[in-house]
Amino acid sequence: MKVAIMGYGTIGSGVAEILEVNRDVVAKRCGEPLELKYVLDLRDFEGDPIADKIVHDYKTIVEDPEVAIVVETMGGVEPAYTFVKAMLEAGKHVTTSNKALVADKGAELIEIARNHKVNFLFEASVGGGIPIIRPLTSCLTGDVIEEITGIVNGTTNYMMSKMTKEGLEFDDVLKDAQAKGYAEKDPTADIEGHDACRKIAILTSLVCGRQVDYEDIPTEGISHITATDIKYANKMGRAIKLLATSKKVGDSYVARVAPFLLSPEHPLYNVHDVFNAIFVHGNMLGDGMFYGSGAGKLPTASAVVGDMVAIAKHIDKNIYLEWEKEKLVLADPNEQVNRFFVRSAASEAEIENIFGQVEFVESGLDDEIGFVTEAMKESDYATKAAALGEVRQMIRLV
Amino acid sequence: MKVAIMGYGTIGSGVAEILEVNRDVVAKRCGEPLELKYVLDLRDFEGDPIADKIVHDYKTIVEDPEVAIVVETMGGVEPAYTFVKAMLEAGKHVTTSNKALVADKGAELIEIARNHKVNFLFEASVGGGIPIIRPLTSCLTGDVIEEITGIVNGTTNYMMSKMTKEGLEFDDVLKDAQAKGYAEKDPTADIEGHDACRKIAILTSLVCGRQVDYEDIPTEGISHITATDIKYANKMGRAIKLLATSKKVGDSYVARVAPFLLSPEHPLYNVHDVFNAIFVHGNMLGDGMFYGSGAGKLPTASAVVGDMVAIAKHIDKNIYLEWEKEKLVLADPNEQVNRFFVRSAASEAEIENIFGQVEFVESGLDDEIGFVTEAMKESDYATKAAALGEVRQMIRLV
């Protein structure tokens, strides 16, 4: 069975490596060997073992009837979308690690694949090497999924773990993460939560079967978290982590990406460093969690190759995936009830006057007070915070 | 699509409940409703909503061409094996929660299913509601799985958690577990590790693609663990848990079921009470873990219904599962290298004379000494322990 890789960056070269290193087990599980025929890239990679497979025009792959499976590891919506669409329409199966493409065009590409009796799979787009897409779409199908909450961005989890362990400020930890290759030169997509937002949009789409637009999900990153916040968290016996969460409300879901203060009892409390984990609550299953390497070359490529094996076992059949184009109107996030940790320069009397009963958190600082509110609607919190005026920081509890 | 349930006990009635409660989502995911037509049981269940579906002869189901999917939740090898075989041979798909059946007859039933172009699935047989079988067989297929280590028995994990939390003795905790319905009247299969042994045999068979006989796996339970052991564990900052583990050695695996002393860094350290979790290490994935409700009516039934949906989506196709009848000769467990915690009435001098350098653990007891050995082969430990003579307890470290 001939295969092609589009995009020979970190993940793409990882896929080529696994096809080589694990050649025998992959062949056994597929029923026949997977032979890499083309690698599409703008560059030439002279001296690389795949140099003779490099092509620069995606149409070479589209027009080769021998190629049955195409891997898309280019990233970004375009030209990935154009290329993937062409491959599916030419009757080739596609697997991708590209969350931007899947979040934006998932429903459409699934439909195109279905119409052409091929598969469009994307296990690697969320949680790196952690099996989460297929468990949701082919295991937990007897359940109504009532909650998905994940640590789905390794960069930010590494940074928050390091800030917690070493008491460092955000900027110093970011520099360290960049030096280690965990954060990109332009870290915006990670640290502002955009990456996590696309991932929770994908997961929510899959459990409700409809299109969830990531633009509709309120998203905060971690760039405003300081060493002072970590000190408060330590005092409270909690840990700050960037969560992407989605909860069932009536016939819809309410979703959010934000840093949260987790209690030690929370299943995600012990997920440290670059690891990812996704917590799931089903109405029959109860609690479940999927944990592992959420990023990195080989773990992510492992998920891509797992998709290739699944495709090889379904070469003549479209695996039905329920993700229709019809948009799901998410529930109003301002109606969500949360408890809020707040740092304020106001007095205890002012705080209690506006928020009623609160738990004060000893800060050791002269010029501010930390407190935790009772559970209240987001909209009520916003009103009270505006009335208080002097809010330096707000982080939700979970 | 008509379905039947064989065995209307805890799990079987849970399956019927989910088919009713989650009827709409299940129908949507299957493409059509699943209609329960028969329930096979020796009893009559008068007054139960399924009373009119009760049949006493499995041949009624075998001979009804309308029935496409059969659920086996009877437990035990016979008559489950005879019934399941007949169903598969009659062209009906089967899903089971029965680990005894799968461990004993899995390879054969998979082959029969393949020959009759139907599916024999058993997600519920390991880890209850936790997706683990399908992630191993359809997600982590790009990997060579180098280790699977699980807490796969909720009863014993509950008991060890309770002994740890409350300092109680084994017999008292067993009575409590029986009173709560977590342990059976005859708890042997759980507390002596037989249940965990069958489960690790199943998981090992699936990752190596060959038959692993559970009789070949050295198995110790937890009935010899005492409150004194727990005190030592606390001193060491470790937790005692019953693990079922399988590690790749050359072209084979070495497997064991036994209580282990886990360090806080171990991914399974935080798995408490009746929860189960399975840690997996792949040569490309690195570390992964699957956590959730490992037993109980609805979580286990959730996995069965997930299988039913998978079957409905593959009603015309056998999903290839690699588990051949040819037996895998497991690697010699006596060659395995471990560190051993030992309680002994011997003197420090005698201990050091035989074991060389050890770490002594402060016991607070007058009549014995606790110590941890260096890493050594099981066979070497056995020789030294025999020479020492006075061994009251041995628990491996991990």
Question: What's the name of the CATH homologous superfamily of the largest domain in chain A?
Answer: Dihydrodipicolinate Reductase, domain 2
CATH fold-level name of the largest domain in chain A: Dihydrodipicolinate Reductase, domain 2
Strand tally of chain A: 19
From the N-terminal CA to the C-terminal CA of chain A, the straight-line distance is 48 Å
Helix % of chain A is: 25-40%
CATH class of the largest domain in chain A: Alpha Beta
Number of folding domains of chain A? 3
Would you tell me the structural class of the helices and strands of chain A?
Answer: alpha/beta
Query: Which assembly state applies to the chains in this document?
Result: homodimer
With helices defined by DSSP (H or I, 4 residues minimum), what is the helix count of chain A?
Answer: 14
Task: Report on the biggest sheet of chain A.
Answer: 9 strands, mixed
- Mind telling me the C-alpha Rg of chain A? 23 Å
Order of strands across the main sheet of chain A: 12-11-7-9-10-19-15-17-16
Strand residue content of chain A: 25-35%
Catalytic activity (chains A, B): L-homoserine + NADP(+) = L-aspartate 4-semialdehyde + NADPH + H(+)
Family (chains A, B): Belongs to the homoserine dehydrogenase family.
Pathway (chains A, B): Amino-acid biosynthesis; L-methionine biosynthesis via de novo pathway; L-homoserine from L-aspartate: step 3/3; Amino-acid biosynthesis; L-threonine biosynthesis; L-threonine from L-aspartate: step 3/5
Organism (chains A, B): Roseburia lenta
